[in-house]
Amino acid sequence: MATVKQGDAVKVHYTGKFDDGQVFDSSEGGDPLGFTVGAEQVIPGFDAALVGMQIGETKNVVIPADQAYGPRLEEYIQTISREQFKLGDIEPELGMAIEMQTPQGPIPLVITELTETTVTLDANHPLAGEELHFDLTLVEIAA
Questions:
Q1: For residue 63, which of 49, 42, 53 has the smallest C-alpha distance?
Q2: Does the residue 2 lie in any domain?
């Protein structure tokens, strides 16, 4: 039976969980995730976990932060004055996701703290610094 290797187009059902078992994402009940193994379309640990799997095989893997979304970096968090923060007529709210335009392209930010005079913005990926647990089921291999 065929096994997954670098360059294969695959389809996989997955459920992603935190250390405490809380589910943060899942394809169950929907279409499987399709991508090319080794093409950097998913996090490195997810990619590596599929190599050697066979269709119908299920695997549970733990992916450390450095093989997922990397560490949380304090330099990606910045506090600015409310005067510097302009979104037209929109008032900033805790947890609000926004994009900042840069010469290199847009950067997603989340508002993580608000005071009467400041807004704290975090450019870390929401899953940065997290060890992630995945239940994987290989559905298809297309070489």
A1: 49
A2: no
